[in-house]
Every structure is written in structure tokens, then in C-alpha cells.
């Protein structure tokens, strides 16, 4: 096989894999036609944790740039997790997951509600 054919085959396989992942995201991401590939590229570049045990390889990715993208990525992880994919060259089953985003509530110091309430000075004794 010529090197150019090999490179073209590799690019074709990559594009097909992206297209297949976009098709899996379609039911869970309304903007998949406009942002699907961008979301995938963000997902491929995001930080995460890898943990291996005797039978599993757990991949947990950090939340993405917005909650709706994280939700779409979580749905994709759930779909991929059902495929019971084995990591190549091993017997480890891959588990995919998204780390939940940090929750910032009213108890969080410096929350918008806390900053909007004027401080009341204590009356002298």
C-alpha cells in the first residue's frame, strides 16, 4: 500500500468515527448539527482521570465549557458505556463518565445574594 493511501485511509477512518459519535449525540444535543464536531474536539482535549483495576479502565472526564455540553457528553458516555468496549491489547472493559460540575450555592462565600445585601453595622453598646 502506498503511504498516501495509508494517510487517506487514516483520515477517512477518523472522520467516520467523528460522524458516528455525532450520530450518537443527536438525540441528546439540539445543536449537534451546528456544534457537534466542536463539542467532540472539546471532549477529546478535556482533562480527566484514568483508573485501572484488574478488569476495568475507568475514564472520568472533567465538565465541559457549559452545562448543556457537559449534559450531552454525559449522555454520550452512557451510550458508549453500554457498548462494553475492551481497551485494545488488554482485557480491560472501558467505563466512560463525566465528573459532575462544581455546585455553587447560596452558602458559597461571596455568592451574588450575599454581596447584594448591605452590611448592617452593629449598634454601639
What does this structure look like?
The protein is of the alpha+beta class and 125 residues long. The chain has a 3-stranded mixed sheet. α3 links the parallel β2 and β3. The protein has helices at 3-25, 32-45, 67-81, 112-116; strands at 48-52, 56-61, 93-98. It starts with a helix and ends in a 9-residue tail after the last helix. The chain has 4 helices and 3 strands. α1 packs across α2 (32-45). The chain has one domain. The protein is 46% helix and 14% strand.
Beta-strand segment tally: 3
Shape: globular
How are helices and strands ordered from N to C?
HHEEHEH
Beta-strand residue fraction: 5-15%
Distance between the ends: 91 Å
Overall radius of gyration: 22 Å
Neighbour order of strands in the largest sheet: 1-2-3
- Uncertain parts: none
Mean pLDDT, to the nearest integer, reads 83
| Total tally of structural domains | 1
**Main sheet properties:** 3 strands, mixed
| SS-derived structural category | alpha+beta
Helix content: 40-55%
The number of helical runs is 4
